[in-house]
Specification:
This is Twinkle mtDNA helicase isoform X2. This protein is α/β, with parallel strands linked by helices. The protein is 30% helix and 17% strand.
């Protein structure tokens, strides 16, 4: 089974009351001198643009042309264009665009999105913001400096400072035995005190957590912290993480202050402990990504521009391997190498603990880009990896639907799932829980709900997340909403009929910006009206499905596509032909008071079958409560219309290409 990172929100419930001593009320400040002060916290969930106000796309060619026209010097980097900053103090006194000799090149413009970041002032914005600032300079108006932090960010910094001041350097604990016990508890007995001191790791006794600092690259002030606790089960150590500020705003490349301008090589790891172990064993500059293999925010790319060689060593499972290949695309394949997970190439900390040669492992890293595959020799390690890690290859298991795991084995990238069912059978409600289950396990999810509003969808998912009706327990809303917001979940703001190209472009943007690996489209019929009105609707549907299938393959992303079936008699069970007019799918069934999920096409290993679902109106969930014994009935793959003896009704169908 694939190992999945624990959600930070779970850690917060256990750790927050202990961080600064005493019990902290929900929303209470951790600021010194303001104990127990209740505050109202407001957060805005990321949404992707609607056609009424989309983010205008810009190509790197257009960016170069604009910079030349404005007389702004620049040079090409790996992921960004480098220019002198518009925001440094020296530049504000000027009324002309910066020249090649007037300032260092500290402003970076993303070649894919046009977004910019000034590493000298931390000013950032869209391509349109950059153009607006250039126009202000032309009119003699000083470029505005970065504004003050939002209230929530400021409070998070105060909380982080409170935690940091109360934590003790791990190498300076009063009791030497306590130091040994603590290091053993976290599996870092081989990490020396000199390494811990170099990276500035502290220990918070009250929370029994390591504390990793996030220092601003501009003025070395403390911007946040990450707390890492540990849960031990037999011989397995599981790390539990919590960040301040919250995960969406925590963009700490741990180890960045230790990087010299002369360094041209770096290793990216998935955990802070791995970065320390790697540096200790090899002396190679090492950084840790803030959310491990889950995401590489584009805002971090400017800090990696100086390196001519980047090695990605994110973990020991296939999920980390897939993430490394995707991140290499952002970083530029030419300079990236990947450490393939394996028994003799585990994550860096484990390799150090086992006495393996980490330098040798780094030297064996594979180039991220190949011009072509010319023989089985270049594929044999990939094949061996899949044979050794059968469960991981099968994908991420559903926690709420164990019977679905028996049929599909797991959720895998690069596939297309088609889901169908009659009107009112609960398609959207089921799919929202189906996707939520994966999202809670760290699968970055993008929802495209064209039929119901995002507010209504979020309400359904929040109810499923909390497993209770929050309208009857409003005092718990903030607690559950805070946890829900920490999920890697994003929404498109489309509603009603949309053009397939606009939807695909938005999905492409989301994959780059947020490392989306699961896209839910509900439903396909809302893209039919914009495509080829004079052509047969079945042909149009095939065209749209083909576009989504290609996107899934090209972007190593799983797409779940909801399709309404053709209208048929209420007593007639849904067939594969209810969608495509020919046999190539899977489905879900309903009867009076009962619903069944039926898989009728599974290209991973061919298993198909049907099992009942119990719907809970209170929690809006279909997952089994554990009280009733779910009976799975395996079937042969459909080659003819399903017999009427099967459970009657219908709620969904899917396909795995």
């Amino acid at each position: 089974m694939v190992l999945v990172p624990l959600r930070p929100c779970r850690a917060s419930v256990r750790l927050l009351p202990l961080l600064c001593g005493g019990v902290r009320s929900k929303g209470a400040s951790l600021s010194p001198g303001v104990p127990g002060r209740l505050t109202q916290r407001r957060y805005k969930k990321d949404v992707l643009p609607s056609p009424e106000g989309p983010i205008p796309s810009v190509s790197v060619t257009e960016i170069r042309q604009y910079l030349r026209a404005q007389g702004i010097p620049f040079h090409d980097g790996y992921s960004c264009l480098h220019t002198p900053s518009l925001f440094t103090g020296e530049q504000e006194a000027q009324q002309q665009p910066p020249s090649a000799t007037s300032a260092p090149y500290t402003l970076f413009i993303d070649k894919t999105t046009g977004s910019f970041l000034c590493t000298a002032t931390l000013a950032e914005g869209t391509w349109q913001d950059f153009q607006a600032n250039v126009e202000l300079r032309h009119h003699g108006i000083p470029t505005p400096s970065p504004g003050e932090s939002e209230e929530d960010t400021r409070r998070a910094r105060e909380d982080a400072r409170c935690i940091w001041d109360r934590a003790l350097p791990l190498w300076e604990l009063l009791d030497e035995d306590e130091t040994h016990v603590t290091k053993a508890m976290f599996g870092i007995s081989t990490v020396t005190d000199a390494t811990l001191k170099r990276f500035g790791v502290r220990y918070l006794r009250t929370a029994k957590s390591l504390v990793f600092p996030w220092f601003s690259p501009r003025d070395a002030s403390l911007k946040g912290v990450k707390l890492v606790g540990v849960e031990s089960q037999e011989d397995t150590i599981t790390y539990v993480e919590q960040t301040l500020p919250r995960p969406g705003s925590y963009r700490n490349l741990f180890g960045l202050p230790l990087i010299s301008r002369r360094d041209t090589e770096v290793v990216l790891t998935g955990r802070e402990l791995d970065a320390m172990a790697l540096y200790q064993a090899t002396g190679v500059p090492s950084l840790s990504l803030p959310r491990g293999p889950t995401s590489l925010p584009p805002a971090l790319l400017p800090y990696l521009e100086q390196f001519k060689r980047i090695t990605l060593w994110l973990g020991e499972d296939l999920r980390s391997w897939e993430a490394a290949k995707l991140f290499a695309r952002k970083l530029n394949l030419r300079r990236c190498s990947l450490v393939r997970p394996g028994d003799q190439q585990p994550r860096p900390l484990e390799a150090l603990n086992r006495g393996l040669n980490l330098t040798k492992i780094l030297r064996a890293a594979l180039p991220a880009g190949h011009k072509s595959i010319i023989s089985f020799r270049q594929l044999r390690e990939e094949v061996f990896g899949e044979l050794v890690n059968v469960d991981q290859v099968a994908g991420i298991k559903w926690a709420r639907f164990p019977e679905l795991n028996k049929l599909l084995k797991g959720h895998r990238r690069g596939e297309l799932t088609i889901f169908t069912g009659p009107t009112g059978s609960g398609k959207t409600t089921f799919i929202s829980e189906y996707a939520l289950d994966l999202c809670m396990q760290g699968v970055c999810t993008l929802w495209g709900s064209f039929e119901i509003s995002n507010v209504r969808l979020a309400k359904i998912m929040l109810t499923q997340f909390a497993a209770r009706r929050l309208e009857e327990q409003l005092e718990q809303y903030d607690e559950w909403a805070d946890r829900f917001e920490d999920l890697p979940l994003y929404f498109m703001t489309f509603h009603g009929q949309q053009n397939i190209k606009t939807v695909i472009d938005t999905m492409q943007h989301a994959v780059y910006m947020y490392d989306i690996t699961h896209v839910v489209i509900d439903n396909l019929q809302f893209m039919m009206g914009h495509e080829h009105l004079s052509v047969d609707r079945l042909a149009v549907q095939d065209y749209i499905v083909g576009a989504f299938r290609k996107f899934a393959t090209d972007n190593t992303c799983h797409i779940t596509l909801v399709i309404h079936p053709r209208k048929e008699d209420d007593e007639k069970e849904l067939q594969t032909a209810s969608i495509f007019g020919s046999a190539k799918d899977r489905k879900l069934l309903t009867g009076p008071g009962k619903r069944y999920l039926q898989v009728s096409k599974n290209r991973f290993d061919g298993d198909v079958g049907v099992f009942p679902l119990d719907f809970s109106k209170a929690s809006l969930t279909f997952s089994s409560s554990g009280k009733s014994k779910v009976r799975l009935k395996k079937m042969k793959e459909e080659k003819a219309p399903v017999s009427k003896k099967a459970p009657a009704g219908g709620t969904g169908a899917s396909k795995k290409p």
